[in-house]
UniProtKB/TrEMBL annotation:
It catalyses: (2R)-2-phosphoglycerate = (2R)-3-phosphoglycerate. It comes from Fulvimarina pelagi HTCC2506. GO terms for biological process: gluconeogenesis; glycolytic process. It is an enzyme of class 5 (isomerase). The keyword Lipoprotein does not apply. The gene is gpmA. PANTHER family: PHOSPHOGLYCERATE MUTASE. Homodimer. This is 2,3-bisphosphoglycerate-dependent phosphoglycerate mutase. Keywords: Gluconeogenesis, Glycolysis, Isomerase.
Amino acid sequence: MSGTLVLVRHGQSEWNKQNLFTGWKDPDLTELGVEEAKAGGRRLKAAGYTFDLGFTSKLSRAQRTMKLILEEIGQTDLDVTENLALNERDYGDLAGLNKDDAREKWGKEQVHQWRRSYDVPPPNGESLKDTGARVWPYYLHDIQPSVLRGNTVIVSAHGNSLRALVMAIEGMTPEEILKYEIATGVPIVYKLNADSTVAEKTVLQA
């Protein structure tokens, strides 16, 4: 028996638009972000997907994206679990800062290392490896078993929490995942084999 796992990064947030480090801060979606979420929902509906379970983070931009997608599909009564294990990477002292201002304060190379290294966290924050350390156990314990029972499951989360998930699902190396970008509002659909390996991957682009 194989199941289906759909991953969606939330639509553009107000802080994405302003070029701010967001992390665990909780800005809302922009008008564009709302439309990105709705468009993702329309593509899922057109492809015939309905869901047995949903999972999202404790942050409102991911929750609202999930809500907008389910409204488009006509599944507003879906059982959705919220858990901070799926929260965005915690940017610590960078959160709320403009990325250009951060480069001025700490230097371009240092900020680049914090953003793009696998295991170097910003001050008082998390690296991608740290993010994975809370995402992976939650996925293995709470999400993957439902998929392997043959269910169709949707996860609405964040760029870095989803990159950590993709790394585990696809068996990527740290170097590979650092080059991997996840577009806002674009569903990534995995069909999983019974042994949890990927049978098929589809990206529902516009």
